[in-house]
Structure to design on (78 residues):
């Protein structure tokens, strides 16, 4: 199931023209190329998200270590 690039109505796969608005639809080669590019973008976004999560975890660990050093480095007065 495909959708018209102009009006958004659902179309059967392989239709060259929209039956609702009459606009020409992209060819199969263009659709395949766009799908490949979309998959590449998704992979890059996933890698960036994972990298950002790792950096955040490292930062959190550093902050926790600094907090522990500050807490236990001071003498407590009771």
């Amino acid at each position: 199931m495909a959708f018209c690039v102009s009006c958004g109505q659902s179309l059967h796969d392989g239709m060259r023209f929209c039956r609702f608005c009459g606009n020409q639809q992209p060819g199969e080669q263009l659709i395949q190329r766009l799908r490949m590019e979309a998959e590449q973008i998704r992979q890059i976004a996933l890698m960036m998200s994972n990298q950002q999560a790792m950096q955040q975890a490292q930062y959190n660990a550093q902050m926790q270590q600094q907090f522990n050093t500050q807490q236990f480095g001071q003498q407590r007065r009771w």
The longest helix spans residues 28-73.
